[in-house]
Design brief:
With about 325 residues, the chain is α+β, with helices and mostly antiparallel strands. It is about 35% helix and about 25% strand.
Amino acid sequence: MNFSTEEILDLIQKAVGEAVEVRSTGPAGISILQAGLPPLRFRLAPWSSTLREGAPDLTLWVLRRPSAAELDRLRDSGQSFVALSGAVRIQAPGLLVDRAGLRRARLSKPGSSRSAFSDRASLVPRAMFSARPGKTWTLSELAQEAGVSNSVTSYAVQDLRDRGLAEVRRSGREKRVRLESRRSLVEEWVREYHWRDNGSLAVAAPVGSPERFLRRLPKSFGGKRWAVTLHAAGALIARHAPVEELHIYLEAKTEADLFLAAQKAGWKSEEKGALHLVSPHYGSSVWEGVREIDGVPVVSTLQLVLDLWNHPIRGREQAERLLANLEVGGADGL
């Protein structure tokens, strides 16, 4: 087969979320496991337009650079597919997923260290980013600051050092760690993370005045954690022009959880809805550094910069402004 199963597994895992397990069953198959449901076993096959009829029900077509029209035809015929350009659609008993804009992972080489930008390990660079420039830690101090084990801290620091993002030097009997540059950290991080890696559900909600709507939201979410990101968060921080869409991280593992939360709040799914509920790619670390602005929880400056960086509508411009303001202010106090 002329495609990488590892790439396919990565894209599918991003599409279905962490609550669902995706496994390889060999070079020509995968298995998807959901709690309480029988496993779904798919046969992987390269797509050919001549193979429209008579395919087994659980065939997962693999396409490299399909056109939008080609993907629409597959959707219309109820087919499941993985496009290596970043789209996944799976239709099977107990599962319906349709995601686009997924980023292909940079595949690790054998023997390489684990990534400092995985969910749990990312608490280490998050702690370093939030401190005053030039601050140094011992590994144990950094582990305590980040709230992770010494082993997680050790491999995260090693990865940051290998990428040229952290300096590690010996001071007496101890090693001390320092972040080289906030900007360099962000620029490397966004090579592996894109705001579209998060699950998202657009809903029709009575937003009206965004600020008043945001203050009413705790009643809608029934105690679940939530935080504003992207342009709505930027507007709360910088007080610039009003925003037309609200993007809100919600404590939810999958897009199905988002749908249930929307149902409970009385909101209907609507492709062009102004409210976007987001299940976080960083299920635990996204909540690190959340702060309130005028009574509304907002993600940390780092998370906001990461989310904005590749957003097509003034995202980089706002991210650059946040970074510049942070350099003037020192520690992350925005």
